[in-house]
Amino acid sequence: MVELSERQKFILTLVIHEYIRTAQPVGSQALVARYHLNISSATVRNEMAALTEYGLLRQPHTSAGRVPTEEGYRYFVSRLIRATDLPDTTRRTISHQFYQMRHDVEQWVRLAASVLAYQSRAASLVTPPHPEKARLKHLELIATRGRQVLMVLVMVGGEVRQRILTLNEPVAQELLSQSADRLTQLFQGQDVDGIRARTAQLSGLDADVIGWVIEDMVEADSEVAGEVYLDGLTNVLAEPEFTGSEEARRALRILEERSLLQDLAARTVMSNTVGGIQVLIGGEGTWDELRPWSIVLGSYGAPGLATGTLGVLGPLRMSYGRAISTVRFLSGLLSDLVAETLLDEPLTNKGENLS
Amino acid sequence: MVELSERQKFILTLVIHEYIRTAQPVGSQALVARYHLNISSATVRNEMAALTEYGLLRQPHTSAGRVPTEEGYRYFVSRLIRATDLPDTTRRTISHQFYQMRHDVEQWVRLAASVLAYQSRAASLVTPPHPEKARLKHLELIATRGRQVLMVLVMVGGEVRQRILTLNEPVAQELLSQSADRLTQLFQGQDVDGIRARTAQLSGLDADVIGWVIEDMVEADSEVAGEVYLDGLTNVLAEPEFTGSEEARRALRILEERSLLQDLAARTVMSNTVGGIQVLIGGEGTWDELRPWSIVLGSYGAPGLATGTLGVLGPLRMSYGRAISTVRFLSGLLSDLVAETLLDEPLTNKGENLS
DNA sequence: TTTAGCACTCGAAGGCCGAGAGTGCTAAAA
DNA sequence: TTTTAGCACTCTCGGCCTTCGAGTGCTAAA
Questions:
Q1: What is the predicted pLDDT for the residue at B71?
Q2: Of A166, A331, B65, B209, which has the fewest beta carbons less than 10 angstroms from its beta carbon?
Q3: Which of B 164-183 lie inside 8 A of A, CB atoms?
Q4: Per-residue confidence at B166, pLDDT binned at 50, 70, 90?
Q5: Dihedral, CA of residue A211, residue A212, residue A216 and residue A217, to nearest 10
């Protein structure tokens, strides 16, 4: 990558800003006029020609203005963008909302998606916090009817999994409870491997049940990011690049296809990183369906315990600054919330007590 | 409503079919040609003029073909449509898929949404089964850290609710378990009112906890249809009436606004009913945002125990026959599944047993 | 009651044209 | 050497016009 002159960087930045604002190719005269530059349009033209040469800008057709290329965006995001923070009042308002519903993880996640979509004016995705390696906290067996038993598995970190088992024959609640207590006692704090290592000593009901438990915990571990919560789909359809029906459908298909999002959420190694935030521009060559998209991804949580992913999906010409600062802020906020609920170390004094 | 002649009914049916197929105004000659009618186009024109007179058809402009009005669709749905069933092989395939994942309610619901969307080529909505009046089955309290306690509430019917409580002071797991057992013993099978009636005799930890329980059960009761699962959004965007960006956004807003869907799901009294299936055409005057939509709604479940809603959302010119038969079929299938898991009365022999 | 014939209507599609914004190049100015 | 004014050229977009064709309603004959 050629080193750009300061003026070239400046002009690249302006072109990107302007293009993000208008979604129209940016011409030299328009740029000079709008930003009251005290260089002539001819000079700007020359610089633009150079930037086009370098592959950072392109022309949709001869005699049209310039549009940033993916490379251009990448250069901008990795070297030109200046970190801005959300305004203080906004931050406080958002925090307040979160701390009002700190009891319900699902609500956080939903709220996070909503806030993210609203602040970034794009689509957002958030996954709930998920432990890397599930460890058993508590096991409960509840007789429902006949041979049907509801198994409730509580993991360290608070995740609850449930499942209906069908036994060979009815078993009294009494016995079920005893079995559940024994197994809880025995395996509390263990992960799948730990449990597997000691199943040999079990027999009868206990052995059957622990089989189910293992099965479920394996499933929990394999679920990289179970559910993905989306919001702000309409924001994205409002963008002119997704305005035709075909583009709109492709866009929506991406958002509806949970698998792709899960892949994304699972992705940890990234090419471009900004303060823990990862920016994927135009699918980075590998994800073809994502060509017209950019994605700003962050993660949150307590590394050993439970982590989740949150991100913004928008057109290439999304407002990266806003997206990045929102993702960063929410990432911190959610991490605090996770830490607080998991570690019982309240970070504020808004603690709600029994009356 | 004037009584139509047989031929008029026939022509109305053809116009609707053709319009559903092509999304283009239907002309008299086109109709005669396509269906090899042995009456002349002039005759068809006369009948169409009559149907237009009655308000069942309309012309987008003079000298254009005819398009069904909402009234036309209503007449068609309530009097002309003939019930068709899904082909046997399709039914079997679908049943099979469901019975493979009968343990996980969330998966059913997701699958139902997916099948419904696929079969009806429109958007679908499904709510999980939800008891009208939550009754307590089992209560569990699990110490996490310090003053934080995870409360797990299992309702009759298998719904599990969880919540993190913050106590005034740390309490040993031992004591928590005892309290939970006591309360479970005392209130098993009771609904909120039953529990409220007997809280007076409690004190200390038990009293505090039961307060949380009541709060949560009230919440459970007020949630008419908690989550709404959607699928097939892209189907609907593919329809020509939602092809412009403005319409597309409006359409998506409807689907994203969960509240409207919840209203719909909650709605029980309907004007048009077909064998337990309710068909809402063009918002029926009351829901303005739904003007360009039709909705086929059904419910499923075991009336006393738990019920859910499922439905298809499509443009006015959706394929009603297909939508209705799919909704009806899935409604029955899901009802069977609910009955089976709740009542332990297996309806097939595919039961999975402990090995 | 049905149908052939006919004049008329109106939207969609295609072609044409001018306006406007933009470019690159050249030569003069700084 | 760098910047800028000037200029010829390019290409899209929007408006306008025309044509085409599918469709209608009406009338009169079958």
A1: 94
A2: A166
A3: 164-168
A4: confident
A5: -30
